[in-house]
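Hi everyone,

Forwarding the result from last night's run.
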Amino acid sequence: MAKVIMVQGTMSGVGKSLITAGLCRIMRRDGHRTAPFKSQNMALNSFVTKEGLEMGRAQAMQAEAAGIEPLVCMNPVLLKPTDHTGSQVIVNGRVLGNMSAREYFSYKRRLLPDITAAFHRLEEMADIIVIEGAGSPAEINLRENDIVNMGLAELVDAPVLLVGDIDRGGVFAQLLGTLLLLREEERARVRGLVINKFRGDISLLDPGIEILEQRGGIPVAGVVPYMDIALEDEDSLTGRFEKRERGAIDIAVIRYPRISNFTDFNVFEQIRDVSVRFVSSAAQLGCPDLVFLPGSKNTMEDLAWMRRTGIERAVGNMAGKIPICGICGGYQMLGEEITDPEGVETGGSMRGMGLLPVTTRLECEKVRRQVRGKVNRTEGIFSALSGLSFEGYEIHMGKSLILEGDKEEQVFVTGDHPDVYGTYVHGIFDRGAVASVLLGALAERRGIAVDHGCCEDYREYKEKQYDKLADILSEYLNMEKIYGSLREARIRQ
């Protein structure tokens, strides 16, 4: 049986995902077969495994940190919000259906066999499993039927590290308040407290830590400084959406309400002279060098939002002047029409932006697959990418029909409008020189010099970030105590 430890937080966004990834990296470097696990994740950033199964991208990132292939058993339940009160429920990588929050709350205990089976599969390949919780274990209104925080810790008999975020203020109240609201047997599982995202002189915290340990009865296992780590974060709480500064090469990404898989653009953030801005109004758009329409969990409603806000008109006016590229749902929006005869989203049909000779029919069966190959020959700025090797993955509820030109399956679809492109491939810029070559072409068009040559293969770049993360956590966490807290998993039947 594998040994386990669980990372829980006082709230969403305290850094559980990164600390879990960092522990996976540390333990891997120490020679242990380590794997991440999150029984239930809620996210619109997702990943497709080699088997064509969908899982949370955060767990794929943690698997990379552990040096192993991402497997769907690392995240057996994935919730992808469709609106404010409902989600698409994905179990073991396949769509189960759409449920309201109340329906799912009543249903989720029926998923325990899937969760325990996934955990057992991980035990067959790992010595240590680092489990990530979700939100806060002190949501007392959700304690019944919990399958992701203390309910899961009890199920597998996991010790817990409780993480608080000092950068958002009130960290002592966060930690003590959470402990106060836990049941006595739940508090007994907490083996260490972690204060995350500290800026300044750590010694100034000493009086507070002393009182925290006295009142909480649990030792502090580390004070982690604010880390400048360029890795994927929770999609709903990312700070990337707030960036407004513009670089020598300015990339604008349309931030619709149901944006998904915006990790497609992280690769461009490596270069100091390049800015990636997420814009949610026509006024914010400005005059960028490249516009991306990213993925969407509800393509038709997000296109309607673009229409209402004037962003559709602003982007359409840029066609022929600057490059525009749609990925997945963004690709569907750029076409002539989107139809939804089976009511996958809103039902009916709607006019697209008319910038690509494509019509899309939404279907109940989700396409999930990894892809690789060479970029097809095209015109305009993306012609620089022709023949380059790429790899990525597709996740979409629909099929698109090319109405004119080369109707064979292509990586980038184009039409009569110059420099307008569409693709279904997520992660297409991550591998090899694809991002670097595109940035070079954009800089050449502008007549400026940008050191795009330092834009690494994104996987190699992330490997360095995982090591940097592990180095920092090794210095500021009490790893001897954390290793001493590991316990053999014992599934409660």
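The chain is about 30% helix and 25% strand.

Cheers,
N.
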